[in-house]
Structures are given as C-alpha cells and as structure tokens.
Specification:
mainly alpha, 10 helices, elongated
Length: 180
C-alpha cells in the first residue's frame, strides 16, 4: 500500500487507513501510525470512540502528551462513567507530566490546573502521593501556604503506614511552612 501511494499519490486507501494505523501501532511505530489514524478518524466518524483512544495513546507513546491529553478528554466524554478507568489513567499520567513541566517553565497556574486534573480523575493511584506533593510545591510557590499545608497532609493521608521518604519530605515542608 505504501508503495502504491508513492507511485499514485491520489490513490484512495481510506478503508485501509485504520488497519494500517493499527499495524504500525502494534509494531511500535507510533509516528507512522498517526497519519493513518487521522485519515481513519476523518472517514469513519461513526467509529470515533473506538479509534480516538488508539490515536491518543499513539500520541502519548510518541511523546506528545499535550495532543494526547486533548484526545483522551474527548474520548472520556464519549464513554460511560464505569468505562473510564483506562482513559482516566492516561489523563492522570499526561496531566501530571505536563503539570510538572509547566511548573519547571514557571507557569504556576497552568501547572496547578494540570495537577488538579490528575487529582480529579484519581488515576494513576500509585502516583497520587507524588501528585499531592507536587500540588503542595506549586501552592507554596504561589504563596498559598494553607493550601500547600493541606496538600502535604494529603501525602501523609495517602500513605497509611506514613513511613515513606515522600511522607517525611512532606512533613518537613509542613514544618517549614508553619514555623520557617
């Protein structure tokens, strides 16, 4: 098909776009898969929900969390609440990664919104203490000490044993905010 497209650029392969996209996706060639996914979305709007998650995952795997997040959010709107756990995991992962980058870039408000989105979807659960710790840092940098203290307390609340290194760091930050 690729050879035919090179020789006959106007050749219509719309019906093959989705199988080709899935082939490249399963081969780990996410950059190759994306144009075919885009074609598939354009010609088969009735299967948007089926394809949207795959396209978003391809963008995420290709390292473009910003585009992936937009598509994951669109997909989330199309599925029932009980079918959202997988997409919520991806939304949380991308939101947290983008939030951390926004914080590094000095975009506190944007970082806070992204980190809050991870907290809203509640996924991935294994990183929620880190997410709350990051939220505490962002709020602290914004001068919102009370909110920062509450965020750091959530780190401790999410670790039932309260023995982890992150919990100790959160407690140190609480002490710094309250007494220093």
């Amino acid at each position: 098909v690729e050879t035919a497209l090179q020789f006959l650029p106007g050749l219509s392969v719309e019906e093959l776009a989705l199988p080709l996209a899935r082939h490249y996706f399963s081969s780990g060639e996410f950059g190759q898969a994306l144009p075919f996914y885009q074609r598939a979305l354009a010609v088969a709007p009735d299967s948007v929900a089926d394809v949207l998650m795959e396209v978003a995952t391809a963008y995420e795997e290709a390292g473009d969390c910003m585009r992936a997040l937009t598509l994951f959010e669109r997909y989330r709107e199309l599925v029932r609440p009980w079918g959202r756990s997988e997409v919520d995991w991806h939304i949380g992962t991308c939101s947290f990664a983008l939030g951390r980058q926004s914080r590094v870039d000095g975009e506190g408000e944007e970082a806070l919104q992204l980190v809050n989105r991870t907290i809203e979807v509640g996924e991935p659960r294994n990183i929620l203490p880190q997410v709350w710790f990051e939220r505490g840092g962002i709020l602290s940098e914004m001068g919102e000490c009370d909110g920062a203290v509450e965020a750091y307390r959530m780190v401790r609340a999410l670790d039932p044993a309260s023995t982890g290194a992150l919990v100790r760091r959160a407690e140190e930050r609480i002490d710094e905010l309250r007494f220093g």
